[in-house]
Amino acid sequence: MLYSTEGATAVVPMDQYLGLTWLPFKMTVATMLEVVYWAQNQCSYQAAEDALLKTLGLKINDDTVRLVTNTIGSLVFQKDCENAQEGYRKLNTGKLSFPRKKSGILYIETDGAALNTRFKDQSGSSWRENKLGLVFSSDNLYSWHDKHGVLQHQIRKKEYVSFVGSVDEFQKHLFACALRNGYGNYNETALLSDGATWIRNMKELLFPDAQQILDFYHLCENVYTYAKDIFNMEESVYKPWAARICRDLKKSRYKDVLKELESMDIRQTQKSPLNLHGYISNNILNIDYQSYLNKGYFIGSGAIESANKTILQKRLKQAGMRWNTDSAQSLLTLRAKRESGLWVKDVVIPAMKHFGGHKSLPFSGTES
To answer: Model pTM?
Structure first.
């Protein structure tokens, strides 16, 4: 009211004297970064308020925590959008080079998961799909054998992108992420997914040289579901059958599997709403698992499945939560940066520059 009528930027002269009038929420940039770090790290804005009070002695209510988080998250997301548009523009104008000088494999994994929002679509549903992408390379894998002799892997460097919206916009973000992590430099690229049509189409458009791989464990889930249906849930029958089919598929005997499915009594196969023959046929180019294993490829997309829990479910799918899509996007962007090890580079430094702060100011969550 004072600003619109009198042009005043402070209620009392002390604000002006202390230089607080330019600060959003009357906080230093360092304090804003404290707020958003705890907001994305806790299960709710109220939990972030409690953590700030307990750890730092800062009394900041949950509404302010939310507003500050939206402000910083939106700033980071807009920067990501600019980078995504630039990478896509270079692709369309033919200005990207792909030297393919590096040995090894670049992995791209992607998946979608539902998010409950405050708005209903034309069908009456309030659920929206958050599309999540993960990119990492074989250069950043640490492997070892556990005490049982089973080979284990740890991804030491990876980057996530999270987007609530259309496939057209998400794929720009994923492509930019792939470029940042070496797409075009590696001799081989593998795209792992659950076989969704939109992912297959995206692969053809953006990563035509990549070998798409249908997540083996997702395929096995469908095999077991189909087996339960056609064998009337009789464990003694459906379990051995499904296990044998999965073994055959892992050994790339998919032609034999298709012949067996074709030979089955149609009255039996109609018991299942799942068309397993069609599902395998539609992914026939993406299930040569024996060949993939011989080349050292992963055949499971467990990393992206785990990421859905870490980035989305742990923070945005608590009991009773419903989201404004802009707030959800801001928070998901921040969580993706934190889990990617990019908190300082992509959150702290841009915020300091934008709000005129000094990057040497203290804040939580620093990472080298």
So the answer is: 0.89
